[in-house]
Design goal:
Layout lengths: L7 H17 L8 E5 L1 H10 L5 H13 L11 H17 L15 H10 L3 H9 L4 E8 L4 E8 L7 E2 L2 E5 L4 H7 L9 E3 L2 E4 L10 H5 L4 E5 L20 H31 L4 H6 L6 E5 L5 H7 L6 H8 L8 H7 L3 H16 L2 H21 L1
Helix pairs in contact: 1-3, 1-14, 11-13
């Protein structure tokens, strides 16, 4: 599951539909390797830590998103904003000469830590690994010291650690700080410390989002994105004024949080196509294998929905965003920060309906995945 701040509500809706379809097929626990970054890390951890059935947990996850209040994610009071603004201004004016602790975020996410503590039983992740309910959970975050994407892995089965350019794996028990680090949107949320190192959003260096699942021996990957992919028609240039900070930040966050998943899915399909031309006997000699992939993404533009819900933001957040650019420029930016029930409910409903509209594809995917797993086990 990919990142996207409040867009994570869409993933919850898709998961709710998946749980119902899996249960109808008699495969309530079809997904045993769960990976996520940013908002996807929150959803992945909730599912990995579940006490109840997949259906119950998926419904609970969706309900939590639909009842979410922005004050449960970050503080919106004027005092909090005033303190953050003062610290930023002081740092800039004095070049940080008043201390070594520099201002490095715009929003105080202290409430998020409490909210996740109240709703995710992290101790149950290890229990579910030991009992075989799940095989692995992997969350990615970006190490600000080395600019490296670290994938923290809790796995019940052996796997080979990976070390690629700017992305490595690290065995670890998943804790609250791992999830909050993965979800720490750069500039807006504060970096999170893990073992003395500071981490931010896992999407920052997430050049191969599907890689963790593949390294953890997944043969079939269902990807839940949060970016609308319009039909492949050439984009017509639109005349704009000089771009505001809001528009620049929107483009930046889109490239950081959203684009990696679609690009990696495209790359995987291209590799699969190339492998199809390699004789089976030769393919067996290599470590390369074809990976079955199903990508579910929004059929509507989420930024357009955020634009319609803009006035639901607290006045303090509208004031902050308004200082960066116009409402038109801020649509994408707001889509990440709009943690309000009406918006999240619309995204969850969209995710649920998008998945249900692809019911046959999903059922075929699950059936093929189960059949290939059973065949591999019988051969083994």
């Amino acid at each position: 599951m990919s990142g996207g701040g409040a867009r994570g509500a869409y993933q919850a809706g898709v998961v709710k539909a998946l749980a119902e379809l899996c249960t109808d097929m008699g495969r309530p626990d079809a997904f045993t390797v769960i990976t996520g970054v940013s908002a996807g890390a929150i959803n992945a951890s909730f599912l990995a830590a579940r006490h109840e059935s997949f259906v119950w947990s998926a419904k609970k996850l969706t309900d939590l998103w639909c009842q979410l209040n922005i004050n449960q994610i970050f503080r919106t009071d004027l005092r909090s904003f005033g303190n953050i603004g003062w610290n930023l201004a002081t740092d800039i004016i004095t070049s940080g000469s008043f201390g070594t602790k520099r201002a490095n975020y715009l929003l105080d996410t202290t409430p998020l830590f409490k909210y996740l503590t109240d709703h995710i039983d992290f101790s149950n992740i290890q229990h579910n690994l030991e009992t075989g309910l799940i095989d692995a959970l992997a969350l990615s975050a970006t190490d600000y010291a080395t600019s490296t994407n670290i994938t923290f892995v809790s796995s019940a089965k052996p796997y080979t650690d990976w070390h690629r350019t700017r992305r490595v794996s690290q065995p670890s028990g998943i804790t609250l700080n791992h999830v909050c680090a993965s979800a720490a949107i750069p500039l807006f949320f504060a970096p999170v410390a893990i073992d003395g190192q500071y981490f931010g959003d896992g999407c920052l260096r997430n050049t191969a989002p599907l890689s963790p699942a593949i390294h953890l021996h997944a043969e079939n990957i269902l990807v839940i994105g949060v970016q609308h992919t319009p039909p492949g028609e050439p984009q017509v240039p639109v005349q704009h004024n000089v771009p505001s900070i809001a528009r620049i930040l929107s483009v930046l966050l889109n490239s950081v949080l959203l684009d990696g998943v679609a690009i990696d899915v495209e790359r995987l399909r291209r590799i699969n196509n190339t492998l199809s031309f390699v004789p089976e006997a030769e393919r067996q000699k290599s470590q390369l294998r074809s990976i079955n992939c199903l990508h579910i993404s929004p059929t509507e533009d989420i930024s357009a929905i955020a634009y319609q819900e803009y006035e639901k933001l607290p006045r303090s957040i509208r004031y902050l965003v308004g200082g960066l650019g116009s409402k038109d420029d801020a649509g994408n930016l707001v889509s990440y920060l709009l943690f309000v029930p009406s918006y999240c409910e619309r995204l969850a409903d969209l995710g649920y309906n998008d998945a249900m509209n692809r019911r046959q594809e999903i059922e075929d995917f699950i059936q093929n995945a189960v059949s290939s797993t059973e065949t591999s086990e019988s051969v083994g």
